[in-house]
Amino acid sequence: MTAVHERPTGRPEIVDRASLARTVWSWPGTRAFLAVALLFAVSPLIALGSVSETAIISMLPFAALTAIVAVGQTLVIQQGGLDLSIPGAITLGALIVARFGADDAWGLTTAIVVAVVATSLFGLLSGVVIAVFGLPPLVVTIASNALMIGAVQAISGGFNAQTTDELSSFALTRIGGIPVLAIFALIIVLAVHIVLKGSRVGRRFELVGENARSASNIGVATRGYIVSAYWLSTALAAAGGVLLAGLLRSPTLTAGNDYLLPSIAAVVLGGTALTGGRGSIIGTALGALFLAQLSQLVQTFTQATAVQNIVQALIIGVGIVAQLQLGGNPGRLKSLFRISRNTHP
Amino acid sequence: MSTISRSRRLIPMASAVAVAALILAGCSSTNAENGEENAGANNLEADIAAGSVGTVDQFSSMADICPSEGDPITVGVVDGIGTNSWSKTVLAEIESEAAQCELIESVEFVAGLFDLEATTSGITSLAAKGTDVILVIPDAGPGEAHLPAIRQATQAGSIVINFAADPQGERGVDYLDYADQSAKFVGISKAEWIVDQLGPDGGNLVFLGGPAGTLVSIQEFEGLQEVLADNPQINLLTPEFVVTNWDPAQAQQAMAGLLAQFPEIDAIIADYGAAAAGVIRAYEAAGLSMPLLATTDDNSLSCNFDALKAEMAEYELATVSSRTWIGRVALRKAVAAYYGGSNDEPSIYELAIVEDSTGTAPGSVLPSEACLPDAPPDATPSTLLSPDEIAALFN
Is A270 helix (H, G, I), strand (E, B) or coil? Predict the structure, then answer.
């Protein structure tokens, strides 16, 4: 509690009106952007093909899906939680639209609406249980994931379904050369960013995440914000599932499993602390782009899976440590150099 | 002194012997319960041509194997995965085969859901219940990880026949038989088709397999390499098989990586048809034309072929059977073994191309003929289920 009051005074840059460069550097998104820029700069040196048009066009839809899902995860992490029900939500969303999207079933529009809205109810449930009963998010979201996987099994009867040609060809269209999924992701990221940073609701949302008790003290209805984080996260994951169904055409019944860890890694790489509070949606999106390009790069560089996994894990690890350790404080970076200078006189 | 210590040592030994005797007695009593009916039959040896290699035209028929009268028999099927369309079809084929033998009282099904523990306990619990015949797909993990449970079930008196995934171990020692395709031969079949299609000019080839180190992909890859050794005009682009985990989404991403790395790919071999569907999506996403594709049969590949071919002139498709019928073979062999009959059909099948869009492979059908329009995209057109059974399974 007191830490919140002390922190601003403990930061000289705020008191002294920090220089523009410092302010920009202190944004988590800046560091994520630098990481992405560095990765793209290095990519052609390691594997020329990894920045070819084919590679970028193939990579972007997957980056977009990770970004959409990770935006939801950011909201939950900002509330000090973790949403482990993302795989279930993606798979359920994908299945509903694939199975019922045909014209002789519900029609595509209805199926998309049902896929997002009905699936998001599971997130609403998680949020209510967490906010009202105070149960740990880890346990609750694992349980709602199991519920959604159960629903997947019940609806599918164990069989994949194929999306309509309409959706599957739409998912591959490009507008001005950019895959439409990437444009979707961009719109979602910008919209959430603007609401979060530019509106009163957004600022209150961050305050609830930073310190729910003091938010409550100044009259913010904290529960509503916590519930909405889980609800939105599941809704975004379901929307991601709808797009994934289009991208894959026949989504498998485990299609969402590949998105849980990337969604968390993207949030951390993007500079949102796992302890909650302020977050960076733009940073998360850049984190998702970083992960997708990294995966593309190692895949283009070598076909040996062991090497792919090790290299990828190491780079993500370094990225996360750098983001957490340097977190907005150029002084720490300087001190690193100072130490090295001292040890090598 | 020494006598005292010896007797002290003897007490735990004696008790251990007594406990062991009790355990053995317990085992042998279950043995007697199960074994009485097939008196004297050894569940590790039978006249069923265990391990023999052949082709699908050597299938025998349940009618010749199932005796007209005898004791009823219970069947258990344990599938290490058991949730996808392939598994469902396999089970439906076993049930369809079982329906042709009136003596088969029940077919019980255990799905392992990728969980090794659940799979092995499924095997042992079926054996503990005294199930006469246990058919196992040991694919919840490495094949040999299932062996202890398989041995235990065999010792408990059940007839154990593995199929569709290699449990390692030995026929006649750890279990009665193992029925499957020859993965190496499948690699040869597909590679020969590619060689024929590419002609003397040859071209570049990639091979997409399952999870890293998986045996069936390695064996198929070896078959492929054998053919390529005699055909230097074909250039294999990756020294190892490309890992897709048999997941269409991962196959799509892996293929995107390959497309970025290699500007010219003339032919693709994938060891799983549903993963190959992901490969096609990668080409569509990149706006490139599909080249030759040899894989296992998959309804979406068959049914979508004509539409794709209209857009991608160079695309041709050849498939081998996904062998959803292999459980029928396992069941026939188990029934023959149980009643002391004989069965001379092969355990291991050398599969040729059954579907070929170019129409060149002998005995093959065109994709449009193979397509099952009412079945889901990941159904297998080479199933031996009747149209009515397929309709019942998928609706």
Answer: coil
Q: How far is A158 from chain B (nearest CA, A)?
A: 5
Q: Identify all chain A residues contacting B257, using CB atoms and an 8 Å cutoff.
A: 55, 296, 299-300, 303
- Give pLDDT tens digits for B381-393: 999 999 899 888 8
Choose the closest CB to A253 out of B83, B282, B377.
B83
Residue in B79, B253, B301, B304 to test binding to A, most A beta-carbons within 10 Å: B253
Backbone angles phi, psi at B160, to 5 degrees: -110, 120
Residues of chain B contacting A, Cβ within 8 Å:
83-85, 87-88, 212, 238-240, 242-243, 247-250, 252-254, 256-263, 274, 277-278, 281-282, 284-288, 300, 376-379, 394
Q: Position B287: which residue type?
A: G
- The ipTM assigned to this model is 0.76
Residue carrying the six token digits 């740990």:
A136
Kindly report the backbone phi and psi dihedral angles of residue B377, in degrees, each rounded to the nearest multiple of 5, phi listed first: -60, -30
* Distance, CA of A215 to CA of A212 (rounded, Å): 5
Q: Tokens 């949403």 map to which residue?
A: A83
Give the residue among B375, B53, B92 at the shortest CA–CA distance from B184: B53
User: Could you count the other beta carbons within 10 Å of the beta carbon of residue B371?
Assistant: 21
- Contacts B286 to A, Cβ<8 Å: 54, 57-58
Rounded to an integer, what distance in angstroms lies between the CA atom of residue A48 and that of residue B353?
37
pLDDT for res B17: 55
Q: Which residues of A touch B261 (CB under 8 A)?
A: 47, 49-50, 299-300
Nearest CB partner across the interface for B377, out of A58, A160, A255: A160
Per-residue pLDDT at B64: 92
Largest CA-CA distance found in chain A, in angstroms, rounded: 77
Structure tokens at A10: 């403990």
As a whole number of angstroms, the distance between CA B334 and CA B341 comes to: 10
Determine the Cα–Cα distance for residues A248 and A273; give it in Å rounded to an integer: 33
- The pLDDT value given to residue B106: 94
CA B43 to chain centroid, in Å, comes to: 22
What is the model's pTM?
A: 0.80
pLDDT reported for residue A50: 83
Q: Under a CB-based contact definition with an 8 Å cutoff, are residues A284 and A278 in contact?
A: no
